[in-house]
Design brief:
about 190 residues, mainly beta, eight-stranded antiparallel beta sheet, about 5% helix
Length: about 190
């Protein structure tokens, strides 16, 4: 049974593992393509929508009488503090040189990615967040000199994937009844 309303079982301390997979042209990634990005201390999703308001002019005072949604989507924000070559490549929208030790900056600006986040909450119900298709870019600067641990911040616009997901264009949030663990969680 899922708790509803006021229930202390609904309080959540979020934790989990973030997985990423690249699209290959117009082909979405398979489940086996998803890879753990490392430690992601900040993962959030913000639904977005653009509304057109209509106002009636039938009385002396203009009043709003209708709203129509013109645009809907979501923005996925995340930070990774595992400073690896693949994570820097994503941050720099880059391609990897054949040596594996050099990233060509801004050479993969058209790349698209799928995400899976598997929660392992310290408290609260667990879930799986799946975003079918996103366009990722850096969300700020990376400090090469710092008195704190380095971190790469990203923003990803969630794109519609109606071609492959006809009932849920952007992604799914699935609540799971079993507890995951960091040693058994898989994408």
């Amino acid at each position: 049974m899922n708790p509803t309303g006021y229930d202390t079982e609904l309080y959540t301390l979020g934790r989990g593992i973030l997985y990423l997979a690249a699209w290959s042209g117009s082909t979405p990634p398979d489940l086996a393509d998803y890879e753990d990005v490392g430690n992601a201390p900040d993962v959030s999703l913000e639904p977005t929508e653009e509304i057109l308001d209509h106002f009636t002019s039938r009385t002396g005072k203009k009043t709003k009488d209708k709203q129509v949604t013109l645009l809907s989507g979501a923005t996925f924000l995340f930070t990774i503090d595992s400073i690896s070559v693949p994570n820097f490549k994503l941050f720099l929208s880059g391609t990897l040189h054949s040596s594996g030790h050099k990233i060509h900056i801004n050479m993969a600006t058209a790349a698209e990615y799928g995400f899976r986040f598997i929660s392992d909450n310290a408290e609260g119900q667990n879930y799986r967040l799946e975003l079918w298709k996103t366009k990722v870019r850096a969300a700020g600067a990376y400090g090469f000199i710092s008195d704190d641990f380095g971190a790469l911040s990203y923003t990803a616009e969630v794109l519609s994937d109606i071609a492959n997901h006809t009932t849920s264009y952007f992604g799914d949030l699935t609540f799971v009844t079993t507890t995951t663990t960091t040693t058994t969680t898989s994408p």
